[in-house]
Amino acid sequence: MTLVRRVALLTGTAGLMAAAAASLHAQAPGNAPAAPVASGAVALRAMPRGTLLQATDVGGDAAASVFGYETQRVIAAGELLRAPAIAPPAAVRAGESITVRVETNGITVTREGTALGTARVGQQVRVRIGQHSLSGIAAALGVVRLP
């Protein structure tokens, strides 16, 4: 499905397709940030999978560099926190209501949709808009950008 058609789907107007066809272009997807290899970030307590790391969970020299990251497995107290045990949190989760966005040439079109999968910033995810299923890139918390 072309970008022009996706914009028309978001706006619900077929006339926009002809008017915007000359100026629309796809944007390259961003890359997901990698979890830092923290030489001094240590778990202060045992944590289950899915815990968002906070100041009370982490100690050591590099503790601040992992705040907001999510545990990908069970973490033991005293364990060194590094990838792949921790990673940036998911920006969108399956079943959540999200904002679907198309941006081009200074024009932004948004519409509400539903995430069909879970993804971190920069990762591809399927979304549902009405009865249509499209593929986009998780851009921010609760936001998916259509390429």
Write structural notes for this entry.
There is one protein chain. The protein is mainly β. The chain has two domains: 3-27 and 91-145, SH3 type barrels (Roll); 34-87, Antifreeze-like/N-acetylneuraminic acid synthase C-terminal domain (Type Iii Antifreeze Protein Isoform Hplc 12, Alpha-Beta Complex). The protein contains two helices and nine strands. The chain has a five-stranded mixed β-barrel with strand order 5-6-7-8-9. Strands 1-2 form a two-stranded antiparallel ribbon. The model is unreliable at 13-38 (pLDDT under 50).
Summarize this structure as a short list of keywords or feature phrases.
Type Iii Antifreeze Protein Isoform Hplc 12, elongated, two-stranded antiparallel ribbon, 9 strands, five-stranded mixed beta barrel, SH3 type barrels, mainly beta, single chain, 147 residues
- Bulk shape: elongated
Overall CATH architecture of the largest domain: Roll
Radius of gyration: 19 Å
Sheet with the most strands, sense and barrel status: 5 strands, mixed, barrel
**Beta-strand residue percentage:** 25-35%
Total domain modules: 2
Secondary-structure map:
Blueprint: H1 3-11, H2 15-20, E1 42-43, E2 58-59, E3 70-71, E4 86-87, E5 97-104, E6 107-115, E7 124-129, E8 132-140, E9 143-145
Parallel strand pairs: 5-9
Antiparallel strand pairs: 1-2, 3-4, 5-6, 6-7, 7-8, 8-9
